[in-house]
Amino acid sequence: MRNINDLIDKAIELRNRGLRSGEIADELNISRETATWLLTRAKRESGVKAPEDIFVDWSMIGKSSSRLMLIATCMADMVEETLNELDTNVDVVVGVALSGVPLANIVAYQYGVELAVVHPGKHRYEEGKDQKETKATFSENYSSVRGKRCVIIDDVITTGSTAEETVKLIQDSGGEAVAMAVIIDKKGIESIGSVAVRSLVRVGRVG
């Protein structure tokens, strides 16, 4: 995808495949507001200002298992550095669905610890409904976080809302979130409460 029209076409394609705006946002690594704006613009509705956002396409990594492993290895190294700084360790790696899960699986394997999976609330959010009704949940097919130190792995931080939601879910579930690692941070977050946030690439705006 090289321009805004390609992005609009892709958003429409994903919507036609049955994805909700939150899922479209996750697939395109944009905010939910940007996803809604793309779909609104596709309907030729004017008067809505484009949100300030940056589109990220890391599919050249995602389509290659070897590249994915190398990137996840870099993330694991970054996590280890952070854990050493905090003088702590990890019991379970928490992958944020969808794109964070394959990365988290590799990181968990390299650490020899358990894997937990979070389904963020935005994946179940539908326009017109109360956002508070669509909370994040853990997948029952993976590890519990109760009584365990957790490292969160995701691909991109856009607004930070999913990261904050995941930290709260871990805490509410009796776990301790100690660090979070992502490929790209578009928000410039250094921490969420006491949870250290690290990224391989941080995006900054000038002006």
Automatic annotation (TrEMBL):
Which parts of the chain are coiled coil? none
Asked if the record carries the keyword Glycosyltransferase, the reply is: yes
* Record GO terms (molecular function): DNA binding; orotate phosphoribosyltransferase activity
Which parts of the sequence belong to the Phosphoribosyltransferase domain? 58-187
Say yes or no: keyword DNA-binding present.
Answer: yes
Identify the keywords attached in UniProt to this record, alphabetized: DNA-binding, Glycosyltransferase, Transcription, Transcription regulation, Transferase
Q: Tell me the Pfam families matching this sequence.
A: Pribosyltran (PF00156)
- In Gene Ontology terms, what is a biological process of this protein? regulation of gene expression
In which domain of life is the source organism classified? Archaea
Domain remarks in the Swiss-Prot or TrEMBL record: Contains an N-terminal DNA-binding winged helix-turn-helix domain and a C-terminal regulatory domain (or effector binding domain) resembling phosphoribosyltransferase (PRT) domain.
Q: PANTHER family given for it?
A: OROTATE PHOSPHORIBOSYLTRANSFERASE, PYRE-LIKE PROTEIN
Which NCBIfam families does UniProt cross-reference here?
PRK02277.1
Q: Which family does it belong to?
A: Belongs to the purine/pyrimidine phosphoribosyltransferase family. GfcR subfamily.
Q: Which protein are we looking at?
A: Transcriptional regulator GfcR
UniProt source species: Methanocella conradii (strain DSM 24694 / JCM 17849 / CGMCC 1.5162 / HZ254)
Q: What is the lineage of its organism?
A: Archaea, Methanobacteriati, Methanobacteriota, Stenosarchaea group, Methanomicrobia
